[in-house]
Design brief:
The chain is an all-alpha fold. It contains 23 helices and no strands. Helix 12 runs antiparallel to helix 19 and helix 12 packs antiparallel against helix 21. The longest helix has 38 residues.
């Protein structure tokens, strides 16, 4: 997935400042800060942005919106760095100093201090410049981040095989269009809520500013859950690849353990800037792996040893079971294939297709790093088009040659050992990069938003926090290993992640958040704006007012978004049901067994 935050980009500025600032600020007791701020308010007519808590419930939507418009106007005056358009995407400029005043030397204390008393001495311009300095990414960087994917292309052939030619093309096209629209909604909200004074740095920040602290907690926890499940999937796929490369001379569970141990050590890296060029390279490694897989599928037959991870086993086992020692011929279907489990297989395929567009979860983090977030929209549409055409061609090609025998992930379904091993090696290289990044980001999300925020643990910048980080990394990867070993049904687990996590961040949450954004915008237009001289903001609307503002300017968009939101929830429910049914059938038939030594992917 394209869920590798700009933490991984070497040319995206010193991103440690983000974590250090947040962690240090969260280390203070809430009541003590609020008491001090109240004392300051008595001496001044307003509370300045640098005197606020990181997530201050007293900051109104009007104040967020006022500073966002101020920031957007300033960004329009910034000179463009490097090429724009197609050339800027293909050859992204090396990011230089931050947005705004590139030659200013910003005091590092502006970034890292968490003491409100110290921040009182920081001027408004110093506080804004501290945020400008961290915005260094270009639209080319955003493009590569969105297209950095490990699951999307290699799960799509399986998805097509479960749905057939026509339905899969139609559904994948709809998913692509809606994913792009969701990206637009996130961009629209970011442009109206982010500012140098109050930067938006995560999906949870959008939830907090529109629905409150519990929305931020929920989004952060779900984000952390998705990332640890992604790591579990990568442990499974790499374990299967290593087992297949060794021709099953190595026990599958040991192969998975090898990658978990790799994670124990690679996860100790607390800053991933030096891996930035590897993250960019992983895009091209995946493309090379796709080409190798297509070459193998076009010249050689399917890997009959991997039928337990094939589409056919979940559609209709008769499609892949040998008769008198002879396997059925490759079959493709124009419509949904006849299935022994009804629509479960097709819904499961749809959930695998969702993986291709699972990067929305970190879109706000991408935009937070850009010199001009306005340019993100162009990069996002370019990335979605790249994903759609490249992945679609790959998926249709593999289905055409392997039919019901398409495995998930698809590079494990090549019968010729040399080609299969080449694909496995490329996939393992890309996956270990992704696993390290997913694990690091996922643990940081949990540590900062759950352990520090809710359980009052010390931030990672403290000595105690560093020891806790070192201790938690093995636990995190051990959990990922248990997930992969206990549930070695790769397709089933991808359905779970797609239904419960990816689909929510890409299709459910954006329209839900945008409804609140439009209502608050309508209230702002009706009740007046924020006064920067006095700090006065219009009174917040009541419950009945929200209903009135729902039907204000372009109310039909809110209605469409409600339908969109409910439709995404319904699809998520179907996906969850499909995953449960697949697991029940798998464990009942013995195809899926926990902590097995025999690889569920087979060796050909």
């Amino acid at each position: 997935m394209a869920q590798l935050s700009s933490v991984m980009q070497a040319d995206s500025g010193d991103l440690r400042l983000h974590a250090q600032e947040r962690e240090a600020l969260q280390d203070l007791e809430y009541d003590r800060e609020k008491q001090y701020i109240s004392q300051e308010k008595e001496l001044d007519s307003k509370i300045r942005p640098q005197h606020r808590l990181i997530h201050d419930p007293d900051v109104s939507f009007a104040e967020y919106y006022y500073y966002a418009q101020q920031t957007r106007a300033e960004e329009e005056t910034h000179p463009t760095v490097g090429k724009t358009g197609i050339m800027g995407i293909i050859f992204p400029a090396k990011s230089g100093p931050g947005a705004g005043q590139p030659n200013d030397d910003v005091n590092s204390n502006v970034h890292v201090t968490g003491d409100v008393k110290q921040r009182v001495t920081i001027s408004d311009e110093e506080w804004a410049q501290a945020s400008r300095a961290l915005r260094t990414a270009t639209q080319g960087t955003a493009f590569y981040l969105i297209t950095t994917d490990i699951f999307g292309p290699f799960g799509l052939p399986y998805a097509i095989a479960t749905m057939g030619w026509g339905p899969s093309v139609a559904l994948y096209t709809v998913f692509a269009a809606l994913a792009g629209y969701s990206g637009y909604l996130l961009w629209d909200m970011f442009m109206g809520l982010d500012s140098y004074q109050f930067p938006v740095r995560s999906f949870g920040d959008l939830g907090f500013r529109l629905y409150g602290k519990y929305a931020r907690y929920s989004l952060s926890i779900l984000q952390g859950l998705q990332l640890i499940l992604n790591v579990g999937l990568l442990v499974m796929s790499n374990g299967g690849a290593l087992s297949q490369a060794s021709q099953e001379k190595l026990c599958y569970i040991i192969c998975c353990l090898v990658w978990a141990l790799v994670g124990f050590f690679s996860g100790q890296i607390r800053t991933l800037q030096k891996l930035g060029w590897l993250a960019n390279a992983s895009v091209w490694i995946n493309i090379l792996c796709m080409l190798v897989s297509m070459g193998g599928a076009g010249k050689y037959g399917p890997n009959y040893g991997s039928i337990n991870s094939s589409a056919g086993i979940n559609i209709n086992p008769a499609f892949v079971e040998p008769v008198n020692g002879t396997y059925p011929p490759v079959q493709t279907f124009g419509g949904i294939p006849p299935s022994t489990n009804g629509f479960v297989g097709a819904v499961g395929g749809a959930m695998n297709a969702v993986f291709s567009f699972g990067g929305s979860m970190i879109f706000p983090e991408f935009m937070a790093e850009m010199k001009k977030p306005k340019d993100f929209l162009w990069a996002m549409w370019a990335a979605q088009a790249f994903i759609y055409f490249c992945y679609m061609f790959y998926g249709l090609f593999m289905y055409g040659y392997q039919g019901q025998y398409v495995a998930n992930p698809s590079y494990l379904g090549i019968s010729q050992y040399g080609i299969s091993t080449a694909g496995n090696v490329l996939a393992m290289i890309s996956a270990v990069i992704a696993a390290t990044l997913y694990g690091n980001i996922g643990l940081k999300v949990l540590y900062n938003n759950v352990f520090v925020e809710i359980m009052k643990w010390p931030p990672m910048t403290t000595k105690t926090g560093k020891f806790l980080w070192v201790a938690l990394i093995p636990i995190y990867w051990a959990i990922a290993f248990v997930i992969g070993a206990a549930i070695p049904n790769f397709s089933g687990l991808t359905i779970v992640v797609g239904a419960f996590c990816i689909l929510q961040f890409t299709y459910t949450f954006p329209p839900m958040l945008h409804i609140a954004y439009k209502i608050k915008r309508a209230a702002l237009a009706d009740r007046g704006s924020f006064d920067p001289a006095t700090g006065a903001a219009p009174q917040r609307p009541g419950l009945t007012d929200y209903f009135r503002y729902f039907f204000a300017d372009r109310w039909y968009l809110n209605v469409i978004h409600v339908i969109y939101f409910l439709g995404a929830l319904s699809l998520a429910g179907l996906g969850a049901y499909s995953a449960i049914e697949i697991y029940i059938a798998g464990f009942a038939s013995g195809v899926t067994t926990s902590f097995t030594c025999v690889s569920p992917f087979g060796s050909g």
